[in-house]
Amino acid sequence: MRCIRLLDVLLLTAVLTGCSNTGTVFQDRFFALGTLIEVSIYGVDPALATRASAQIEQDLLTMHSNWHAWQPGALSITNEQLATLKPFTPDPAVLPLLQEAGRLSQLSNGLFNPAIGKLIALWGFHDNALPIGSIPDSNAITALVQQAPGVNNVTFTGTQLVNHNPAVSYDLGAFAKGYAIDRTIERLREFGIQNAIVNAGGDLRAIGQHGDRPWRIGIRHPRQKGILASIELAGDASVFTSGDYERFFEVDGKRYHHIIDPRSGWPANKTTSVTVIHDNAAMADAASTALFVAGPDDWIEIARNMHIELVMLIDTDGIIHMTPAMQSRISLEPDTDAEIRLSKPAS
Amino acid sequence: MTRADRILIFIVVSALPFLYTRMWAGNTDAGYLQIQAGNNAPITEALSPDRTLHIHGPLGDSVIEVNNGRARFVSSPCRGQICVQTGWLQTSGDLAACLPNRISLTLLGQHPRFDAINF
């Protein structure tokens, strides 16, 4: 009898531990696109996951080479050709990227502006290494802003481009990562993978789910250690955050970050971070930048223009601005005591 | 019900809170440190004993401290020093990276609260 009772205990223990099985997640990390890439794949043969991850690593290295504005490659050559103000046919590796970036820039009323590469370079944010303590000459900033470089200065005729503004130079830093993540998700699907996350330096797209539960994503607090909010994703969604803490330098205690307002030429100064959720990573990437620049006064209008429904913006006073749709999707951490302001639902 | 039955029931009931927190409650305790240096195979390090690690990257050595189940960048030959300013990593899923020196630290555990972190 005692043996049977002991067996009961062992069975109970086995059931308890068996229920804790979290399934199999293949994880891989590597450096590409100037950041750390993390690939999580659920529920496939590890050999297949390894092959798929190796393939997207190669894909991303190629994209980085093609799309980097400041290293030799297709985009830097395109910028050289744009500077001639003569018609030319760009490398096919960058043409669709420029067209899509132009479309999103127009939707954002130019607040996402991929044509301000010269301003980015003036601030020193084009380099992988951060600039230290060097605010650009304000006259040089003003001169570039007055030339108003924008995607409207570039005419697309079939596969030909012609630029009409010598101040135009493309920098796709606020867009290419999202576009690249979309391509990697397509690649994973070609491998038959339906449940995965591709996380590029904190910006990610998740497809499918983690076994019988959604993927669980933590959104880091922009000013404190730890998590501000969490969200569960099942299906297909991208989560992108633009923040003033990602790349910055300080002079006399003032922070100068990498998200430049194309209207002023200076870092946008009313926002701490913007998180956007959208099924398309390229759109989420461009929108998070545009809404950051728009700031707490104008983000609602720009979000509506871009058809973005899930937005959380934290302003420099720590106030959390959200769409009602976002509030219903995310869970703020219990210790969050910030004021929350909801936008009115779109009419 | 014999005395042995009561003892067994007591043991099982006593173990339930432990098993619950261990198996379901999102234990965030980090189990080990994963170091990614360039695109080489990741290095896995235990979080004890306390020690200092020197990891070589394209700019030079990044110095990593493991202390009391935590890890951090002590120094790195980069300009921004964001990796050093990140401070201690102590919860499963915590991450710090020196992108210029292509070295990242990630704390991994059996039951991380999140599958990915957005920032």
Question: Would you mind describing this structure in some detail?
Answer:
Chain A has a domain at 26-60 and 192-342: T-fold (Roll). Chain A has nine helices and 16 strands. Chain A has helices at residues 2-19, 46-67, 74-83, 95-107, 117-123, 138-146, 176-190, 281-305, 324-329; strands at residues 25-32, 35-42, 154-157, 160-163, 196-200, 203-208, 215-220, 227-233, 235-243, 248-251, 254-257, 271-278, 310-315, 320-322, 330-332, 340-342. In chain A, helix 2 packs antiparallel against helix 7, helix 4 (95-107) packs parallel to helix 8 and helix 7 packs across helix 8 (281-305). The longest helix of chain A is centred in the last third of the chain and has 25 residues, at 281-305. The model of chain A is unreliable at 9-22 (pLDDT under 50). Chain B has a domain at 26-108: mini-chromosome maintenance (MCM) complex, domain 2, CATH 2.60.320.10. Helix content of chain B is 21%, strand content 37%. The N and C termini of chain B lie far apart (57 Å). Chain A binds chain B through residues 2, 5-6, 8-9, 12-13, 16-17, 19-20, 22, 25, 29-31, 34-36, 38, 40, 57, 128-130, 132, 197, 199, 201-204, 206, 210, 215-220, 225, 227, 230, 239-241, 243, 246-247, 249, 275, and chain B through 4-5, 8, 11-12, 15, 19, 22-24, 34, 36, 38-39, 42, 78-80, 82, 87, 93, 95, 97, 99-100, 102, 104, 106, 110-111, 113-119. Strand 7 (215-220) of chain A pairs parallel with strand 8 of chain B.
